[in-house]
From TrEMBL:
It is an enzyme of class 2 (transferase). This is histidine kinase. It is found in: Membrane. Residues 281-490 form the Histidine kinase domain. The keyword Chloroplast does not apply.
Length: 490
């Protein structure tokens, strides 16, 4: 299976689990909100039942006080409590759900309340009011009072009404406790489910991450190791191509690339060896006829020197110069071809001593003064390539200097990981248009007849530095001189 599919499936599983957790928590939040609304409604119901029962007592005491004393103060208390009970019953009727058991109990309470008010309270109040107008009315009130109150029916009705409201209130309290218990259990269950799903999601996520890390990272590290081996020169290395996923395809591509590289590098090495042998053979075969020509010229000069005219002698000197240039050119080609083929030899190099050796071998003229920095670095490096670079740069600075008081300055600057060396002269300078051309092999800015130049020296310098991934830079002003600077690793 492709890694992209595995990652997608893994994240999909985690997403589903977290979605389930979110959905359960959302549903639990709805239940909590619903329960909160229930408790708010239940609190109102309990508060109204308590007020209703208190008003019943106030109505009974107000009714009896008015019947005994006839004072309007008691009847006002009765009317106030009665009106409030009407409002309470009306509000309870809207609050209590139609499907609730309480709804039926509320209807019975309303019927009992209406029966007590209409059959007992109102007739007694009206009779009491009339009893104050005549003796017959007073006698009628006394009869009604004994019939309605002293018989005990009114008291039993009143007690039944209060008991029903008490039962109504107790039922509400029990319902509150039940809902509270259910809510608590639901919250606990939701917490457990959420913790379980979250834990499972985390475990699955870790398992998927570990699996992918093992499946991807381990195989990628094998390919990184393979790439490092290729970079180190081992082109026969291969890695195991497991599976048909993207990394498996990459591993197979790397194996194919390594095989192609191995073939090409082997071919390149063989061609380089053939080229080196060719350069050596050609240089040897070309030097032989040049030496032969030089010998013939010397023999002629030795045997017929007095017979030669001045013009012929001049021609012979020109021939010798061309022979020297040809031999130098062949040697330069051979040196250029050998760069990068020798095994590097690291040794402790004192540049102050090395510079003395170079200056002894370079053909310095009396008109050129060379100023060398006194404290050049001492460090472990390749001596021969560095010597070749300085020899070519200093030799060119001497050879092409056109000033009567020629000056060459050699100095160095230190950086954290490399040195920068400078060869500065006050010669003719080099136009910017030729700054790249002079580093190409066989390229020279002077006429070949005026200087025995091969055009190989700066090409050798450039190739040595390129082979070591270093750089060379030219800063020059025509007529004022040039500064060649190059970097060399510590």
């Amino acid at each position: 299976m492709k890694i992209s599919y595995l990652i997608f499936i893994g994240f999909l599983v985690i997403l589903i689990m977290f979605s389930a957790t979110t959905y359960i928590n959302f549903k639990q939040a709805e239940r909590v909100n619903e329960n909160s609304e229930f408790f708010a409604r239940s609190t109102t119901i309990v508060r109204h039942t308590n007020r209703f029962q208190r008003n019943i007592l106030n109505m009974v005491s107000g009714l009896r006080g008015y019947l005994f004393t006839g004072e309007n103060y008691f009847i006002q208390a009765y009317d106030s409590a009665a009106q409030e009970n009407i409002d309470i019953l009306a509000e309870l009727d809207t609050i209590v759900p139609d499907t609730s058991v309480q709804k039926r109990a509320l209807r019975q309470i309303r019927q009992l309340n209406d029966e007590w008010v209409n059959n007992y309270a109102i007739p007694l109040i009206e009779a009491k009011k009339m009893s104050l107008t005549s003796d017959s009315s007073k006698h009628a009130f006394d009869e009604l009072y004994r019939e309605r109150l002293l018989s005990g029916v009114e008291m039993r009705l009143n007690r039944r009404l209060q008991q029903m409201f008490k039962d109504f209130s107790n039922y509400e309290y029990n319902l509150r406790d039940l809902r509270k218990s259910e809510l608590t259990e639901s919250i606990i269950l939701t917490k457990r489910i959420s913790i379980y799903l979250t834990s499972v999601s985390i475990i699955c996520g870790l398992a998927i991450a570990i699996f992918l890390a093992y499946r991807i990272s381990n195989r990628i590290m094998k390919m990184v190791k393979m790439a490092d081996n290729i970079a180190a020169g081992d082109y026969n290395v291969h890695t195991t191509a497991e599976g048909n996923d993207e990394i498996g395809s990459l591993a197979r591509s790397l194996n194919h690339m390594a095989s192609v590289l191995s073939e090409n590098i082997s071919l390149l090495k063989r061609k380089n060896e053939e080229l080196g042998q060719f350069a050596h053979i050609v240089s040897h075969d070309l030097k032989a006829p040049l030496r032969g020509i030089d010998n013939v010229v010397n023999w002629i000069e030795e045997d017929h020197l007095d017979e030669l005219s001045p013009k012929v002698k001049e021609y012979f000197q020109l021939i010798k110069g061309r022979l020297v240039r040809g031999e130098n050119l062949i040697q330069g080609i051979l040196t250029y071809a050998r760069i990068g083929r020798e095994q590097p030899v690291i040794e402790l190099v004192d540049l102050n001593e090395l510079m003395g050796e170079i200056l002894e071998n370079v053909a310095a003229t009396s008109t050129v003064a060379i100023d060398v920095q006194k404290d050049l670095p001492v460090f472990e490096t390749e001596k021969i390539p560095l010597q070749q670079i300085f020899s070519n740069l200093i030799g060119n600075a001497i050879k092409y200097n056109d000033k009567r008081n020629g000056k060459i300055k050699i100095y160095a600057r230190k950086s954290p990981s490399y040195y920068t060396f400078f060869v500065e002269d006050n010669g003719p300078g080099i136009d910017k248009a030729y700054h790249d051309k002079i580093f190409m092999i066989f390229q020279t800015l002077q006429e070949r007849d005026s200087f025995e130049s091969t055009g190989v020296g700066l090409a050798i310098v450039k190739k040595i530095l390129d082979d070591r991934r270093q750089s060379i830079k030219l800063t020059s002003t025509v007529g004022k001189g040039s500064v060649f600077s190059f970097t060399w690793p510590k």
